[in-house]
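Lab intake sheet, docking and co-folding queue.

SAMPLE TYPE: protein with bound small molecule
LIGAND NAME: NAP
LIGAND FORMAT: SMILES
REQUESTED OUTPUT: full 3D complex as structure tokens
PRIORITY: normal
SUBMITTED BY: R.K., bench team

The fields below were copied directly from the construct record.
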Amino acid sequence: MQIKDKKVLIIGGGSKIASAIAKRLLEQGATIILQYRNHKPIINKVKLLQVDLQEEKDCENLISSYLKLESSGPDIFINCIGDFSYKHFKDLTFQEFKQIIDSNLYIAFNLCKLILPLMKEKKEARILHFGYSGANILEAKPSILPYHISKIGVSLLTKTIAQTYAPNILANCLCLGIAENNDFDFSNKIPLARPVKLEEIAEAVEFLIKSDYITATDFYLDGGFRPTYS
Ligand SMILES: NC(=O)c1ccc[n+]([C@@H]2O[C@H](COP(=O)([O-])OP(=O)(O)OC[C@H]3O[C@@H](n4cnc5c(N)ncnc54)[C@H](OP(=O)(O)O)[C@@H]3O)[C@@H](O)[C@H]2O)c1
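RESULT FIELD (auto-filled):
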């Protein structure tokens, strides 16, 4: 799929990862619509929508605001939202558990349900979610339980969309290990001994969007982190 002249809706636009992706796709000639909540992205030539997406109604508001800007649905939807928490299961409250699932999984579900009807008539379209490569080992990690659960959910949601909407909508999950915007330094746990650069994430996003044959995939961009994750 060519990126030039495609409409791209990116949510979680306040994140550095989203900015790097937006810049790369702008260079390819795409129209970019960025949703953000608190952190306003500083990028020229993008259209901005400020919306909190916590509730189902908020997601509906985003889509109606998007449709006031654009005459048709996005060709490409990229979800960069996904809060993280590090707290042991023994101390975790239901509200804290729910907040992580809401941020990573429910927003993804709600927005896909709203966007897919706008996308399904297109000859070609793409959906991209972010996963966490460590979650895919399917082992108990008491300090990051809700994050793991939500990222496994995102992966299954993505594969379900890919299966349901093939062949015109291709959906993939880009599973990171540790990115350079991460506050934790896990370099000693990564075989390639460094976090992934933002430009490398944007490069992988471009690769996945351009591919006409990759779908329903957990695509690992983790420097070898997952097999050694323990
Ligand atoms: N960074 C890593 O090392 C890493 C590793 C593995 C996976 N990932 C995944 O990659 C994706 C991007 O990560 P990141 O590090 O760029 O994340 P980030 O810096 O924490 O940004 C996430 C964005 O999500 C937005 N957000 C959260 N809840 C929201 C809500 N209810 N409504 C609207 N916006 C909301 C925040 O908006 P505001 O700031 O405007 O409030 C924030 O800009 C996430 O899915 C993350 O889980 C990241």
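REVIEWER NOTE: DSSP finds six helices and seven strands in the chain.
SIGN-OFF: pending second check by T.M.
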